[in-house]
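Q: I'm building a small set of examples for a reading group on sequence design. Run inverse folding on the following structure and report the sequence directly after it, with nothing in between.
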């Protein structure tokens, strides 16, 4: 990606801390380092717990020695594995920046259900995109896409600090930052010009699921397309020169 988010000035209004989002981040990190410390080859863990469309559809069988969980359960387990440290770090940064406000809008329990449903939807989108593929998909990117879809509907005008080209700090509205992310996923999926090792359709499946689910799962009274938080409105209205 051409940027990474580093902070959003978007205070919580209903919860004190996003415990579920923090817990999900912790589980992802622990799983990654357990796999690394155990010395298990990354491909072996990916085959054991990753989502393989051909296996999920019953076209081929997973090797008996690697059949650690039922095939249906891989719609969840795949989302807690990562191929390398940078894969993990990128997903967790996005989750850290955006998940707290989504959890705030939904509440702790509903956010947990939301996250799991986004992961499942993302995985199933990948299965539908290439039902005979024998390549496993792993990673939280689809579930992260669900959080991005929800955040866009909840807080499109929130201000986000990003590192553009991984080195230039710049502050933009969420609609521009996340809108670019969405456009990039769609472009890559439909044109095939992106990295062949990235499951673009999983990202899109999670994105769509998150956008739809937040409409129905948000707390009563939580608006969609909210304006900038109170601390940001004066700056937006007056501009940089007062």
């Amino acid at each position: 990606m051409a940027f990474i988010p580093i902070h959003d000035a978007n205070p919580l209004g209903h919860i004190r801390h996003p415990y579920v989002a923090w817990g999900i981040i912790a589980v992802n990190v622990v799983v990654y380092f357990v796999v690394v410390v155990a010395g298990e080859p990354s491909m072996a863990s990916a085959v054991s717990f990753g989502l393989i469309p051909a296996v999920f559809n019953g076209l081929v069988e997973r090797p008996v020695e690697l059949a650690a969980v039922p095939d249906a359960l891989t719609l969840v387990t795949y989302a807690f594995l990562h191929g390398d440290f940078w894969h993990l770090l990128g997903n967790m940064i996005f989750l850290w920046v955006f998940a707290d406000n989504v959890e705030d809008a939904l509440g702790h329990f509903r956010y947990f259900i939301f996250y799991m449903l986004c992961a499942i939807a993302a995985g199933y989108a990948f299965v539908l995109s290439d039902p005979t593929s024998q390549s496993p998909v792993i990673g939280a990117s689809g579930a992260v896409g669900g959080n991005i879809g929800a955040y866009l509907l909840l807080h499109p005008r929130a201000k986000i600090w990003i590192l553009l080209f991984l080195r230039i700090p710049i502050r933009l509205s969420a609609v521009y930052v996340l809108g670019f992310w969405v456009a990039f996923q769609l472009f890559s999926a439909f044109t095939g010009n992106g990295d062949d090792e990235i499951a673009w359709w999983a990202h899109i499946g999670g994105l769509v699921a998150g956008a739809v689910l937040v409409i129905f799962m948000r707390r009563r009274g939580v608006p969609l397309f909210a304006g900038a938080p109170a601390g940001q409105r004066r700056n937006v209205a007056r501009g940089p020169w007062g």
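Confidence is low (pLDDT under 50) at residues 231-242.
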